[in-house]
What we know:
heterodimer, A: Four Helix Bundle (Hemerythrin (Met), subunit A), two-stranded antiparallel sheet, 72% helix, elongated, B: 118 residues, mainly alpha, Helix Hairpins, ND/Mrp_TM (chain A)
Amino acid sequence: MIIAILSGFIVAALIPLLSKFIKSKGSILLPFLPMSLFVYFASYLPRIGKGEKLSFVYEWVPSFGINLSFHLDGLSMLFALLITGIGTLVFFYTFSYLKGHIYLDRFYGYLSMFMASMLGLVLSDNIITLFIFWELTSISSFFLIGFNNDDPKSRKSALLALSITGMGGLFLLAGMLLLGTAGGSYSFQELLSNGNLIQAHDNYGWIILLVFLGAFTKSAQFPFHFWLPGAMKAPTPVSTYLHSATMVKAGIYILARFTPLLGGTAEWNTTLIIVGAVTMVYAAIHAIFRMDMKSILAYSTISALGILVFLIGLGTEESLLAACVFILVHALYKATLFLITGIVDHETGTRDVTVLGGLRKVMMPVAIAAGLAALSNAGAPPFFGFIGKDLIYEATLHFGDWAYLLTGAAILTNICLLFAGLLAGYKPFAGNLPAEFSKVHLPHPTMWVPPLILAVLGLVFGLFPVLIEKNLIQPVFSSLTNNDTLIHLKLWHGFNVVLGLSMLTLTLGVLLYWKLKPSEALFGKTLKFELFSPQTIAMLFGRLFSEFAKLWTGFFQNGYLRNYVITILGFLTILLGYRLYQGVNFYVDTAKLTELTIYEVIVVLIMIISIIFTVFSKSRLVAVASLGVIGYSICLIFLFYSAPDLAMTQFSIDTLTVILFVLVIYNLPKYKTFSKRRVRVRDGILSVFFGTLIAILTLEVLSEPLNRETSIFYAESAYILAKGKNVVNVILVDFRGLDTIVEITVLVIAAIGVFSLLKLRLKSIEKE
Amino acid sequence: MELLLVILIGLLYASGIFMMLRRSMVKLIIGLILLGNGANMLIFLLGRIVKGKPPIIESSAKMLTEIYADPVPQALILTAIVISFGLQSFAIILVKRAYKITDTDDLDELNTTDEIYE
């Protein structure tokens, strides 16, 4: 199992090494990866059909409770088959679609990476690994959307998609962590047995909110839907695979997966119903005004995802069954339509439905596939879509008080979707062939066979639902509802309300198709509403945020050294001041202090006077000389208090500094006072405050006992270990000899710097 | 004496900070030196000061036994003095050089680095 999941990553990692081979002939081998995975998963179908659930556990980070544990049940099975099945077709399709593309190897690498991540996502039992795979799908989606990386729009869409789904991913992580804490485990199966505990937990509201945010961003629910139409900038195989059949359904997967655990409460159901209903109607209406085939399909995909969220939100057994079936229905017809869009685009160079027409005359098999998909999408009997639509209406009709409103919303959505399906699947192939397309020909079979397979499956499952009822849909239903009620899918229910609604939808949809012709003018009218769309608002927010960041940075990173110093010191002063305000506990034991002698007092007095001179003198020479006096006085203090080495060093260094200052003093600028009096007073107050704080702190530290362990070690070992009698010297050149070498290196570097600054001649340009 | 030194340290810090906040680069360097001196004194004082007992082992003894001045802060300060000298000398020469090219000592006129070579 682990090999099956990781094989995509392994292949993705190998691809750069084999890039030459793949670009020439090898790419035809790659589709066999998803194909063999499909066969592998399908081989479990009989066992899953019997109601078995398979677990595979591999230890990963056991100390954090993170295991690579995988769980294969009905829901995972459905997704795994979709991922590998549609994956196989998309891999074949890409072989022709991107034939000869210079980055074909990259593309396959990203696709394999995505497939592996998606498989990991739907098979993970551990909710942390689930999150990791979730993020990996976002990342591979980012690469695939931005595949045409020389197009700025492509890059922008990729970033937008990544930021929306990545943000959602973070919410999901927070939700998973809360969930793990509440339920005491990160394993989904273990959490499931603690369902009541979690639903009663204080954080339940937060958990579902965070899970919702994750799912809604990924599955493009209102108001986060706007990244999906942008993501259509990706090559068509990507749109098919990621942005309609699998990745965007990851959010649906999460919601479905957590339904038995978190679902069933009023908060859960109401939120999902409202968000799902708004999304499905909003996006469906948007879909009918578009002219670009991909945009039409993008909006109809968002709408279909809305339907799924809505159905999960209804939460009844009927609605969950409808959701199970609709996932498959939608994947089959929508992937077909996307693949066909790709063919049309590839062969004619346009996706504008107002221009396209009559293509059936030049590419019959494609037209057949498109027709079948459009009919399944329309929910016409005897297609699989018909069964799906029936189940949806049944679910909404039996939903108590709100049945009429919800059914109305579902009908409206379905009419618009039907219209969109006809626009993308029927319009380009019907009518007369424009002269400009007369030379268009059928593409390579690897391109038109995949959509045909999917479209025919849509018909076969409709005619013989028994094929998948027991092995596939029943286990999915069981894992959603957590019970084993037997389901029965059938095409014909007899004459009842649901059939009437289906027929009504069909009639109205076709009627709409005759009446409403998409055009530039109509599309232009809808653009006016863009002003209030979530995308505009999100962009505005983004702009405001970056303005704020600019102001904030400008305020703190203003380029004035002293402002930085003031900020840091001010903050430090307030912090220390607050600490001292809370209570200072120092007490000075006068007995312990060393006694004062008159010459010490004199030295200190000299220093104080020199400091005053240094600060307030108007003459540079006086300031530098006073600085020298301060240095010598410190030297004297060192001498009084048993530090002869320090005294010597201080003496020589201080002399050198003063000499250096005096040497260059005539080359230095005038000793001017630039600042205003007010500023000087402010700086003075801050400095005095800071100095006082340091003094108080020093006193406080002085009253603390001292740990002399290190000093004792050096004092005792200096002679015995290092044969030196001057302990300070021994520390510097022996015990810490390496530090001293580094120090010498620093000095050498400084010396080289000084030397070069002095000797380097000014270039003529600098003199100007 | 400790109390006097505490006052001295406070004074050195205050004057160092005040000079660092000036716009003149020369004053900035002077501030840096004052602050460095203050820090050295702080370390010295916190290692506790002892009069007349340098940490040097008698020629007859093998280790320090009676009360002696703490050698660790002294080693630290020695390093600090030398390193700060490297910094100071480099800074002084840099200011001189910068003044030669830009003809100003005012830090506020120096915060755009790119325009000199226009």
